[in-house]
Amino acid sequence: MGFDLAFALSSVPTILGAVGTTLCVAFVSCIGAAAIGFFFEMVRRAGGIAGLTVGFVIDFIRSTPVLAWLYFLYFVLPFYGIRLGSMTVGVMGLSLYYSGYLAEVFKAGIDAIPKGQSEAARALSLSRRHAVIYVIAPQMLRNIAAPLGNYFVSILKATPYLAVLAVPEMLGRAFDIASETYRYTEPLVVAGLIFLVLALAISNGVKRLERRLLAVGSR
Amino acid sequence: MNHEKSGQGMNTQSDCIVDIQGLNKWFGALHVLNDVDLTVASGARVVVCGPSGSGKSTLIRCINGLESYQRGTLCLAGTTLGLNARETAAARRLTGMVFQSFNLFPHLTVLSNCTLALRRVAGKSHREAQDIAMAHLEKVRIPEKAGSYPGQLSGGQQQRVAIARALCLNPRIMLFDEPTSALDPEMIKEVLDVMVALARDGMTMVCVTHEMGFAREVADQVVFMDGGRILDRAPARDFFGASGHPRSRLFLETILKH
Prior knowledge:
- The complex is a heterodimer of chains A (219) and B (258).
- Chain A is built from nine helices and no strands.
- Chain A is an all-alpha fold and 219 residues long.
- Chain A has a single domain (5-215), classed as Orthogonal Bundle (MetI-like fold).
- Chain B has a domain at 105-170.
- Chain B contains ten helices and ten strands.
- In chain B, a hairpin with a 2-residue loop joins strand 4 (71-76) and strand 5.
- The longest helix of chain B is centred in the last third of the chain and has 16 residues, at 185-200.
């Protein structure tokens, strides 16, 4: 039961064939999670009943397993007449789940901006929207580039959960090969290595981005 | 009915930019502003001084609506702040604010710091905004730093940029909240020089400062605050003369000693 290199190599094309699906799901989920998370944080910051409610939703999301969300969206929603494709459900599930975490990241990034910045924006009569777009968000992004990148890698690594919804992503493909040939080592190692390469590429890209963001305006 | 009221008051208010009557503000149980009355005529230069915690910063922050107040009235160019959101916003636009800690936007160049509000609030074109901003940067004698970021400038340079940024929206009154308190001594003069020049140009200003030399040179009214009250107000020469309020004399002696 050694490692059969030839077999491993022969499984590469099949598994690589799913790289597109994995990257696509991860990419759309990152955007979705960031958009929802930022919206959540803005509503929470505004306070009031809506703010409190969203604060509870964020805590709720973060205290439940991502698999529960995926199963819920996939198996429970159809009972209420909402039928969605497995890919859609997968992206929705990951986006929603990670939006809770990203909202916390955005919160930390905004809290770290000195109070004088939004006061200066108000003193210049900028609207709240303009203050967020031109003053707060850019500085927040600079503060959170590193943790944001970490969560993007986490989202990538969470895509195999979608195998339970039969989304043809990489780990699912590797398992298909394994169950056909009863050889688990090679396809799983191949899938793991591809994940490793992708994750390293993302965190490297984020590091570069962070360095560029920090270079702007530094003394 | 509001029109009638403001119409009647027009003659007295046209040359009066700020009219504060019986202003009261509490931070929780702390009574930070206690029945403050203050009027600032167009072209007037008012210096507000007093020990820390006396409410002078809060007062100036109320004038441009950064802080709300609980009782009394605050009229800015004929508009009572806080009654009507749109009118309040329009009146606030007539003020320019300079902070103790500069509060320049660190991710934007000096020029972009100045053009941001021109573009987004005043609705100027890119080109127009740049021309206006450059004119004001020249006025504060720092046009060569237009492409630099705030982090690359000294404190004095940053504060001059902050003054230019506030001037860009063409305010009718400039509010300074301890503009030189965060500066090294050798940089205080370059900022004060800009402020003196501004005063000479006829700009209405309310300035919270401990720079008594500046007060003596440009102020036509000095207001002394302590414990949320205005204890003494006098033309500059009287304030620094022998006739002042005992409490302000004590304050003057303390800060002029060191």
